[in-house]
Amino acid sequence: MSGPVLPALLGRFEWHDLPFVRAWQEPTISEIIGAGAGGLVIVGALAVAMLLTVTGRWRWLWSEWLTSLDHKKIGVMYVVLAFVMLSRALIEAVLMRMQQAAAIGQPGFLSDEHFAQLFSTHGSIMIFFMAMPFLTGLMNYIVPLQLGARDIAFPWANSVGLALTAGGAGLMMVSLVVGQFSTGGWSGYPPYTGLAFSPDVGPDYWIWAVTLGSLGSTIAGINVAVTIYKLRCPGMTFMRLPMFCWTSLCTAILMIFAMPPLTVATALLALDRYLGFHFFTNDLGGNMMNFANLFWLFGHPRSTSSSCRRSACIPKWCPPSRLSRFTVTHHW
Q1: Which residues, including other chains, have CB under 8 Å from residue 157's CB and lie 6 or more apart?
Q2: How far apart are CA 329 and CA 284, in angstroms?
């Protein structure tokens, strides 16, 4: 069962790229866990498809949700996507902690490569496909309501941003079934993620998933910023904005300026891998530190934006009586 299968149609795909085949050929605990994860993804997708078929909800799902331009429904879908990805990330976190506990003085039950994949997927999911979609969903749902706006500034672009983010999350899930994910960590530093050291499809999954997620977040940031600037109801001056809108505006500005460097970094890494460019190859005129600089032009503002949105939720949902001992309430 070696060699490409239908190379004219499937390219470099081999039977060994399926986790079930690997678990059958090498029945170690690590491979069995990988096959179980892939099987869980397939069974879950089939169960959802069967449920929608039995209840006759395909048309309802398509017309009422997937193609809806209502900011509230798009916000809900962002949050649902975030929690679906969170469920996988939590399982991976538990597996990593169990491996660390079991590997005291012995190898443990996970292979080195499998542990590196778990580390990479857990970090990538929590940053790009849990925290960002969740907080973007909150902004989508709440900001127009607090501003007195009918909808977000660009409803169609809002739907496109969700689709791009969902596509990136989908690639993360597909990596459980076909091939393997990157072992280069959530930051994907070259030269390790370059073609010379990682010729498999793992870094490709990471590149395209992160690129789609960053494009979706850029669109969301533009949408939220324009909504706050242009669609406030009469009398809603900037000094009357709720705290959540202020932090959402700061977050949107950070997203607009922080996400493009990440998109550029992943695009340049893709060119290095696919077309033989050497942007990040030190001995061929490149500089891998350029990737680190571009990545952290995104990384530090992203951390700040997440903190802004989390802090905005405290005065939004906590009763004022509980906050009075810590904050001073000012009425405009």
Answers
A1: 219, 222, 223
A2: 59
Residues 6 or more apart whose CB falls under 8 angstroms from that of 49 comprise: none
Angle at which helices 202-230 and 112-124 cross, to 10°: 10
Contact criterion met (CB below 8 Å) for 217 and 165: yes
pLDDT of residue 296: 92
Whole-number Å distance between alpha carbons of 214 and 209? 9
* CA–CA distance, 243 with 246 (Å, rounded to integer): 5
Q: Which tokens in the block code for residue 238? A: 């900037």
CB neighbourhood size of 246 (10 A): 15
Q: What DSSP letter does each residue of 311-330 carry, written as one string?
A: HHHHHHHS-HHHHTTT----
Who's near 255: CB < 8 A, 6+ residues apart?
217, 218, 220, 221, 224, 301, 302, 305
Residue whose tokens read 């706006």: 149
Shortest CA distance to 39 belongs to which of 18, 55, 68? 18
The Cα 7–Cα 15 span in angstroms is: 12
The model's pTM: 0.89
For residue range 103-139, what is the model confidence (pLDDT) as tens digits? 888 888 999 999 999 999 999 999 999 999 999 999 9
Which tokens belong to 112? 């080195």
- Asked if omega into 144 is within 30° of 0 (cis), the reply is no
CA dihedral sign of residues 60, 61, 62, 68: positive
d(CA 138, CA 129): 14
Q: How many residues does the chain have?
A: 332
State which amino acid sits at residue 100. Q
pLDDT of residue 8: 74
Asked if residues 183 and 117 have their Cβ atoms less than 8 Å apart, the reply is yes
